[in-house]
Amino acid sequence: MKSFVIGQNDAGQRLDKFISKAVPLLPKSLMYKSIRTKNIKINRKRAEISTKLNVGDVVDMYINDEFFTAVPPHYDFLRASDTLKIVYEDENILLADKPQGLIVHPDDTEYNDTLIGRIQRYLYEKGEYDPEKENSFKPALANRIDRNTGGIVIAAKNAEALRILCDKIKTREIDKEYLAVVHGVPKVREDLLTGYLEKDSDKNKVFLSGKANGKNVPIKTKYRVICHKNDLCLLEILLLTGRTHQIRAHMASVGLPLLGDGKYGKNAKDKKMGFDKQALYSYKLTFCFTTDAGKLNYLNGKAFTVENVWFADKLFGENYKKKLTPKS
């Protein structure tokens, strides 16, 4: 038998979700059976699988000790690199500047060195994250960007901050602006592109259409020309919807493929110039809450930027920065 006292980072979860994280050795079938037979209770009373946990609740689990077998601490995040660029940090959130080429979460190609791994290592070594004191929570990312796209990614240091951030991203109360270099110069210096996007997971590619077909989703991409040199143009792009490969596919669909993008453009010549990844960077993030943000209300109206975007600096020097949308 073992009891768990629910803390701030555990509250708000369903009972079954909490147990799956807190007691990973317990098979789900046995977990569900134990809840039904009252071998798992909340505050000494019968509970339902979907019961939401509150701070101070006590979860009693009358199951075999073998499922609570202590495993020697082994933290995968300590295998991640200790290199981490931080744009902003406080007691609730961390804004990381992800380099191009680094994945945000483990996948089939890389398990150890990921952005979330670097962040968890940083917070662990800083003394802000101790896995031994957490039942189920780990510092987590609220958004993500492609491996070969660089820029700002939001991490939450506690469960409440994570829930708020995910909600604000869903309701479009956090603006994300990008810098991109494209082949070609738009005839219109500022425009709103619309369309419909359909994802092909098998090919890891998206396809655009001008009409809805029941399978695709609407997209909106707003761009503004910052400057250009010969056939290359620097754009500032505001995502009004956030879909997989949206910027890359949308710009390519209007004849403006991104520099270095081999999936939606042709980058053989770009590679020879030193651009083997799409010239796309999430350089600015603005918190623009229109509804209550709880403990994160203090962030409302604040904007954070990456000061140096390497491909823009290399191609256009420092002068382009004067033409960017000013900080809020």
Itemize the secondary structure elements and their pairings.
Blueprint: E1 2-5, H1 15-22, H2 28-36, E2 40-42, E3 45-46, E4 58-61, E5 86-89, E6 93-98, H3 115-126, E7 140-141, E8 150-156, H4 159-170, E9 174-183, E10 190-200, E11 205-209, E12 217-229, E13 232-239, H5 246-253, H6 268-272, E14 280-287, E15 303-305, H7 310-316
Parallel strand pairs: 8-14
Antiparallel strand pairs: 1-4, 2-3, 2-4, 5-6, 6-8, 7-8, 9-13, 9-14, 10-11, 10-12, 12-13, 14-15
Any descriptors?
328 residues; alpha+beta; four-stranded antiparallel beta sheet; 7 helices
Largest sheet: 11 strands, mixed
Report how far the terminal alpha carbons are from each other: 54 Å
Summed over residues and divided by their number, the pLDDT gives a mean of 94
Order of helices and strands: EHHEEEEEHEEHEEEEEHHEEH
Describe this structure in words.
This protein is an alpha+beta fold and 328 residues long. It contains seven helices and 15 strands. Strands 5, 6, 7, 8, 9, 10, 11, 12, 13, 14 and 15 form an eleven-stranded mixed β-sheet that branches. A four-stranded antiparallel β-sheet has the order 1-4-2-3. The protein is elongated.
